[in-house]
Specification:
Largest sheet: none
Bound molecules: fe (ii) ion
Structural class: mainly alpha
Strand content: under 5%
Number of strands: 0
Order of helices and strands: HHHHHH
Shape: globular
Mean pLDDT: 94
Number of helices: 6
């Protein structure tokens, strides 16, 4: 183990997963439009930052070390989530499909997280087995995460950038 204070990459990403799971559960139980919107916005922020650090740092480090199909599916799943995030961000609890969009986003994320965390065949397990330097990229991701949160808190969430779906626009 390197003597760094940052968590290793997998610990950091798993902690993010637990955070959003809790937020989805909180949304489900929340009543009142204001509360719901606050939680939904937190979900969108957390997921946007998480997807960014995975796509900028973790997934590229997995290239050639993790089953190619699994990695490609992960990018497509991120894009699917980004489309719903953009919808939720643009809308509000008075929209007819608002709660449904948050719920479906939660279900999609649950599936995606399972594919990342699954024992043995999951992306994290494959990457660790292939010797990806989890301490080094954990440190990079922690730094990038802090930077992105600061910029989104100032300027709001950017329009999502889709990695795998270029031909149509979500908004
Ligand atoms: Fe993840
Ligand atoms: Fe992911």
């Amino acid at each position: 183990m390197a003597d760094t204070k940052s968590p290793d990459a997998v610990a950091l990403l798993k902690a993010d997963h637990r955070t959003v799971e809790e937020l989805f559960a909180k949304f489900e139980k929340a009543s009142g439009d204001g509360k719901k919107q606050t939680i939904a916005e937190q979900i969108c922020m957390e997921l946007t930052v998480h997807a960014a650090i995975e796509e900028e740092i973790f997934y590229p480090a997995c290239e050639g070390k993790v089953e190619e199909d699994l990695l490609k599916e992960a990018y497509v799943e991120h894009d699917g989530a980004k489309i719903l995030i953009a919808e939720i961000e643009a809308g509000g609890p008075s929209d007819e499909f608002y709660d449904a969009k948050v719920k479906v986003l939660g279900e999609q994320i649950e599936h995606h997280v399972e594919e990342e965390e699954m024992r043995v065949e999951g992306m994290f397990a494959q990457a660790r087995k292939a010797g990806v330097d989890m301490d080094a990229i954990g440190e990079q991701m922690a730094a990038r995460k802090a930077e992105l949160i600061a910029s989104y808190q100032k300027g709001g969430l950017p329009r999502p950038e889709l990695t795998t779906m270029g031909s149509t626009s979500p908004a």
